[in-house]
Amino acid sequence: MTEPSDDSLVVRVAAGDHAAFALLMTRHMRRAISIARGVARNTADADEIAQDAFLRLWTHAGRFDRTRGGFTAWFGRIVLNLTLDRRRRPVTELLDDRIAVADDRPDALDRLIGAERDASLHAGLDQLGDRQRAAIVLFHVEGISGHDCAQILDLSDDAFESLLSRARRSLRRAIDRQTSRKERCTP
């Protein structure tokens, strides 16, 4: 017996099927949180954004139109829109949840190097515009196909490829700037 497709589950959700909704949540909650976290750069908001996205899925499942793309693109667009809306709100500074803690285990140096690399990547992502950051997160972090990313961002496939290329160049420049700043500050 094959599992029902996401597209068929959305149709069932539109009819009020709680089991279909629960299955979609099981399949897509992690990705929704990950997209929100990657684009918003705020872990605290990611869970709330994902929950809001599933609430929208429940209330607007009847608006799903398979002829305009699959579920992944449609739901990804919901998550992205909610995330971008949240980023536009004024925010209160929160303590950084990535505070480094000394670790004396043998592989602490490797983790430190990895954390430094991650911090550079995140700092570089923070310097990108919303659409470029979304392109990088959707394609490289979430592994969503270029075609689905284009649909999520409401672009043609060629326009998405161009956006992704610009985003990669901008990210590379931002990381290079950070690296050169750190090298100048190192005694």
Automatic annotation (TrEMBL):
<comment type="similarity">
    <text>Belongs to the sigma-70 factor family. ECF subfamily.</text>
</comment>
<protein>
    <submittedName>
        <fullName>RNA polymerase sigma-70 factor, ECF subfamily</fullName>
    </submittedName>
</protein>
<dbReference type="InterPro" id="IPR013324">
    <property type="entry name" value="RNA_pol_sigma_r3/r4-like"/>
</dbReference>
<dbReference type="Pfam" id="PF08281">
    <property type="entry name" value="Sigma70_r4_2"/>
</dbReference>
<keyword id="KW-0805">Transcription regulation</keyword>
<dbReference type="GO" id="GO:0016987">
    <property type="term" value="F:sigma factor activity"/>
</dbReference>
<feature type="domain" description="RNA polymerase sigma-70 region 2">
    <location>
        <begin position="24"/>
        <end position="89"/>
    </location>
</feature>
<keyword id="KW-0238">DNA-binding</keyword>
<keyword id="KW-0804">Transcription</keyword>
<keyword id="KW-0731">Sigma factor</keyword>
<dbReference type="InterPro" id="IPR014284">
    <property type="entry name" value="RNA_pol_sigma-70_dom"/>
</dbReference>
<dbReference type="GO" id="GO:0003677">
    <property type="term" value="F:DNA binding"/>
</dbReference>
<feature type="domain" description="RNA polymerase sigma factor 70 region 4 type 2">
    <location>
        <begin position="121"/>
        <end position="171"/>
    </location>
</feature>
<dbReference type="InterPro" id="IPR007627">
    <property type="entry name" value="RNA_pol_sigma70_r2"/>
</dbReference>
<dbReference type="GO" id="GO:0006352">
    <property type="term" value="P:DNA-templated transcription initiation"/>
</dbReference>
<dbReference type="InterPro" id="IPR039425">
    <property type="entry name" value="RNA_pol_sigma-70-like"/>
</dbReference>
<dbReference type="InterPro" id="IPR013249">
    <property type="entry name" value="RNA_pol_sigma70_r4_t2"/>
</dbReference>
<dbReference type="InterPro" id="IPR036388">
    <property type="entry name" value="WH-like_DNA-bd_sf"/>
</dbReference>
<dbReference type="InterPro" id="IPR013325">
    <property type="entry name" value="RNA_pol_sigma_r2"/>
</dbReference>
<dbReference type="Pfam" id="PF04542">
    <property type="entry name" value="Sigma70_r2"/>
</dbReference>
